[in-house]
């Protein structure tokens, strides 16, 4: 987010809105609003330039920009753009906003007005009727004023309109064409409504320098007339009429002599009362009025060097100076002390969180080095003022009486390039400085410095001092690096006691002491990185070691970075990477707090305990406030006013532990914990939109939403109002009350669920305000149909289909087996009837030919019969093999076979064959059973023709009509009378074969006219 910090004097403009916050800063009591946040388009606004803002009945902030409407919940913005469809805003440039009732706000645009429902965002637009040449100006809205009966007065460039509660125009009053057509696009605050129902409205003017006239509207008589006697004869420009309440109005304008006149106007008595006003000039910028809170009227214009606030009750002006001001086009003071302003540079935002951290820019400026770098390490109050020191030894001292500051560079003989770790108040204006070159004293009044002196001074005392502590007995403790141990210094006696980490304390073998604190018994606890935890026992003047215990509750991490003691006696230890540990010396039971408990980071750099027992934890990523009684954590980052997110020092001020010093890169902050803004205890989730499979779905939370099985991608955008600091809200969700696991959503207030399975869902959102106070709310109930392929009926149908398919399969398999069996039988019958009989005949004839009593002629006859029988056997075998071969299914091969058989039978008898099969038989197939029946019937018919017809010509023809085939065999023989025919076996056999083909067989003949045998059968 874009964050900007203004000059400190600017923040005084808001003192009237939050005067209860007073900070002690470097010894001077003053109102401080130094930190603020500026939100722009980069933070989610539809446009950086804002025209207006309003707070709705539920506390949400609505912002009008040049590019649409925005709603702010303290964390993010919801944008509403214009459109031409039903229920959309008319106009993209939002000119003014007003609260209508507990459920609606009013939006004035450059194309009419609209009423917006703040819960479901339903928009009721209204475009004002006007002559065509005035239509644009009549809908350019400048001001809206809601009346007690729900009606609305609307002032535009082209006229004044009375709108009913049903959003219908009841009355219309149009300005003269020459005024409306030349009207300036910026003319706010021009309307006063009197108790008797009449109105005064300032006429539109073409430029900001034109003199302005006043019209009076009488709604009862539906009349608008220019006042003959102008009530403000000395008004030169910027005549502003501001409704203060139902009986008072504020009138402000610039006289001809460029001085500003401020008047309170009694609407009931129509009497003017001059209100003394600080002399100022509007310059060339129109004034903007706002109602930041009840009974207050705010005034801002670029020509002012102050923000003006008029108190209606006291009828007095208040002035709040600031430098280089933006024009505050609207100001609202919301709950919890939040102040927001619409400006041309974005949304100006100041909250109690921002104001919590105070500092004096002069200290930071004087403490910077030549490269502009700054890391503040310590601050202490002396008898004459306040002193602060940077990491590289730049000391800044501010006088308590005058507030003036001076800086100097700390130096000691032989101690160049100092790195300062801490300051300890010593005596009067003298401070003790712990640095990488040892510890020494410095007098803040004259800058004098020197080494610590005493009866005994260790030789290594001039080396790096890692940490220091002033205990309750007046002793000062120094912890060193390079295994140099611990030193106790008594300032009164000027004596040193050294506790070397060798010999007697050889077990305390570590490089650097990183933490020192005193417990309630007066014992000193020591911590160090990589070593562990130790305690100096005051009564025994000895040191005891404590090592981590692996048992639950007794374990701690020994890489300690900082230590502090709480009023309840517990000692808090920060660690490098393991969060925060707490224990009580009486029990030595350890509790651990990490990021999972709300800390900003597990690498703790500093720990401090304030006057209320609250634990402040600095880390590599921000500052945490831990309430040990509740375990709730509030977090702070750079956008709240910290100098940077990397905090090096957190320390309660010795003279006032209710003030905590925070040091890091970029400077320091001083906070007074007594003014900590307590987070709200409860809130509510409001659904912004619902999307199903990326398609917007109207949202209602009054029933169960039924979805189809493929509508299983859900997006719910919601808001939880927290203007105090919505950025720190955290959200979780679960699917039902029985679901014990809260799944994290994070800081973003959008829940996306993809690939949901069929079933019922009850989405519950858990919101944790500022990381502490949590609440739960059901936001959506819906059901997703299970896919039909997952239903019991589906499985039943699938099972039934499988059973049917299995039955059909086995049926077909059985039929195939039976068909094959039948085929085998037929083949065996053929072999037996044709081949078997012929082979038997050959066998008999062969035996007969061996009889010696048979003549040679008879043997020749027998040999011819054997030859004929063998030929028949060969032909029968060929027929069987041909019928069984699958390649012969194609009708082209059958056609050739029919021709060959006819030619083989007819040619030896001298009969001429006429063969015609010119029909389309492509892709036509016959199975072997049909082929066999067809060929046998065909052969039988030809044999009958040869035996009985006594013909010379035979015509064979095949035709096709769709799936029906017709075969005809015609001869020119002697013919016969079918009625007189006895009907031999041949005719019966042929009809039987035709039935097996699924067709019919017929013979047509007359004596002397030949015979026609016809076969009709389906091909499939």
Structural notes for this entry:
With 1020 residues, the protein is α+β, with helices and mostly antiparallel strands. The strands form 18 sheets. Strands 61-67-66-63-64 form a five-stranded mixed beta sheet, with no helix packed on it. The model is unreliable at 1-33 (pLDDT under 50).
What's the total number of strands?
Answer: 72
The largest beta-sheet arranges its strands as 61-67-66-63-64
3D shape: elongated
Low-pLDDT segments, ≥5 res: 1-33
Portion in helices: 10-25%
Backbone structural class = alpha+beta
The biggest beta sheet reads: 5 strands, mixed
Write a compact overview of the structure shown.
This protein is of the alpha+beta class and 1020 residues long. Strand 28 (330-333) and strand 29 (339-343) form a beta hairpin.
């Amino acid at each position: 987010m874009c964050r900007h910090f203004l000059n400190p004097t600017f923040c005084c403009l808001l003192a009237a809105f939050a005067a209860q916050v007073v900070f002690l800063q470097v010894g001077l009591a003053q109102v401080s609003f130094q930190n603020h946040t500026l939100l722009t388009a980069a933070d989610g606004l539809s446009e950086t330039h804002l025209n207006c803002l309003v707070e709705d009945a539920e506390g949400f902030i609505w912002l009008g920009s040049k590019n649409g409407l925005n709603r702010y919940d303290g964390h993010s913005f919801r944008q509403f753009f214009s459109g031409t469809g039903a229920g959309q805003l008319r106009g993209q440039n939002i000119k003014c906003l007003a609260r209508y009732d507990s459920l609606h706000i009013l939006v004035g645009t450059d194309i009419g007005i609209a009423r917006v429902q703040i819960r479901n965002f339903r928009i009721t637009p209204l475009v004002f009727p006007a002559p065509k040449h005035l239509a644009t100006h009549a809908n350019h809205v400048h001001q809206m004023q809601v009346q007690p009966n729900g009606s609305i007065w609307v002032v535009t460039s082209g006229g004044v309109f009375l709108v009913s509660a049903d959003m219908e125009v009841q009355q219309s009053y149009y300005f003269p064409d020459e005024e409306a057509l030349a009207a300036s696009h910026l003319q706010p605050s021009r309307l006063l409504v009197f108790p008797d129902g009449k109105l005064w409205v300032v006429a539109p003017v073409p430029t900001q320098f034109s003199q302005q006239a006043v019209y009076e509207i009488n709604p009862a008589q539906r009349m608008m007339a220019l006042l003959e006697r102008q009530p403000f004869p000395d008004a030169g420009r910027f005549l502003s009429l501001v409704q203060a309440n139902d009986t008072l109005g504020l009138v402000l304008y610039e006289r001809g002599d460029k001085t500003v006149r401020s008047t309170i106007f009694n609407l009931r008595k129509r009497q003017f009362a001059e209100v003394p006003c600080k002399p100022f000039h509007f310059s060339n910028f129109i004034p903007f009025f706002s109602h930041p809170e009840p009974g207050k009227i705010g005034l801002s214009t670029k020509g002012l060097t102050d923000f003006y606030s008029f108190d209606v009750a006291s009828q007095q002006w208040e002035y709040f100076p600031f430098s280089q001001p933006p024009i505050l086009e609207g100001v609202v003071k919301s709950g919890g002390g939040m102040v927001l302003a619409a400006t041309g540079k974005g949304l100006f935002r100041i909250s109690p969180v921002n104001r919590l951290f105070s500092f004096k820019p002069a200290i930071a400026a004087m403490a910077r080095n030549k490269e502009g770098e700054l890391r503040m390490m310590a601050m202490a109050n002396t008898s004459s003022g306040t002193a602060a020191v940077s990491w590289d030894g730049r000391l800044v001292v501010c006088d308590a009486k005058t507030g003036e500051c001076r800086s100097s560079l700390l130096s000691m003989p032989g101690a160049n390039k100092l790195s300062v770790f801490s300051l300890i108040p010593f005596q009067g204006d003298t401070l003790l400085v712990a640095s990488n070159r040892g510890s020494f004293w410095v007098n803040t009044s004259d800058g004098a410095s020197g080494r610590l002196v005493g009866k005994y001074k260790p030789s290594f005392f001039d080396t790096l001092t890692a940490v220091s502590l002033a205990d309750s007995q007046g002793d000062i403790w120094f912890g060193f690096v390079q295994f140099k141990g611990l030193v106790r210094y008594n300032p009164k006696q000027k004596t040193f006691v050294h506790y070397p980490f060798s010999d007697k304390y050889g077990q305390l073998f570590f490089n650097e002491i990183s933490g020192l604190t005193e417990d309630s018994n007066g014992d000193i606890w020591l911590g160090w990185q990589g070593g562990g935890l130790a305690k100096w026992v005051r009564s025994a003047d000895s040191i005891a070691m404590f090592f981590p215990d692996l048992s639950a509750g007794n374990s701690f991490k020994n890489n300690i970075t900082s230590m502090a003691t709480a009023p309840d006696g517990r000692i808090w230890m920060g660690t490098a990477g393991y969060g925060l540990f707490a224990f009580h010396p009486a029990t030595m039971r350890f509790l651990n707090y990490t990021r999972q408990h709300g800390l900003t980071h597990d690498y703790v750099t500093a720990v401090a305990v304030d006057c209320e027992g609250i634990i402040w934890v600095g880390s590599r990523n921000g500052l945490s406030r831990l309430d040990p009684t509740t375990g709730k954590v509030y977090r702070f980052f750079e956008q709240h006013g910290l100098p940077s997110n990397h905090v090096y020092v957190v320390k309660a001020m010795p003279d006032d532990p209710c003030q905590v010093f925070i040091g890091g890169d970029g400077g320091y902050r001083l906070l007074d914990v007594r003014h900590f803004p307590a987070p709200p205890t409860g809130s509510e989730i409001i659904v912004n939109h619902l999307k199903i499979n990326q398609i917007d779905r109207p949202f209602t939370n009054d029933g169960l939403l039924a979805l189809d099985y493929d509508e299983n991608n859900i997006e719910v955008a919601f808001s939880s109002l927290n203007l105090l600091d919505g950025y720190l809200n955290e959200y979780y969700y679960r699917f039902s009350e029985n679901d014990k696991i809260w799944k994290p959503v994070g800081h973003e207030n959008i829940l996306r669920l993809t690939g949901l399975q069929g079933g019922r869902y009850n989405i519950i959102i858990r919101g944790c305000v500022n990381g502490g106070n949590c609440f739960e709310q059901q936001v959506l109930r819906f059901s997703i149909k299970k896919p039909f392929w997952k239903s019991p009926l589906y499985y039943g149908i699938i099972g039934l289909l499988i059973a049917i398919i299995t039955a059909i399969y086995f049926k077909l398999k059985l039929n195939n087996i039976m068909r094959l069996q039948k085929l085998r039988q037929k083949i065996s019958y053929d072999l037996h009837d044709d081949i078997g009989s012929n082979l038997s005949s050959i066998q008999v004839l062969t035996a007969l030919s061996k009889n010696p009593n048979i003549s040679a002629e008879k043997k020749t006859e027998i040999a011819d019969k054997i030859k004929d029988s063998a030929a028949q056997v060969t032909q029968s075998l060929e027929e069987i093999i041909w019928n069984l071969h699958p390649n012969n299914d194609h009708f082209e091969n059958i056609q050739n076979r029919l021709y060959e058989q006819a030619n083989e039978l007819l040619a030896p008898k001298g009969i001429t064959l006429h063969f015609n099969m010119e029909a389309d038989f492509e892709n036509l197939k016959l199975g072997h059973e049909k082929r066999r029946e067809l060929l046998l019937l065909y052969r039988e018919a030809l044999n009958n023709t040869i035996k009985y017809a006594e013909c010379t010509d035979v015509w064979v023809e095949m035709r096709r009509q769709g799936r029906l085939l017709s075969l005809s065999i015609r001869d020119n023989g002697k013919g016969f009378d079918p009625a007189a025919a006895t009907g031999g076996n041949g005719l019966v056999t042929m009809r039987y074969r035709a039935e097996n083909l699924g067709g019919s067989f017929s013979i047509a003949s007359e004596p002397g006219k030949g015979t026609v045998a016809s076969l009709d059968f389906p091909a499939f």
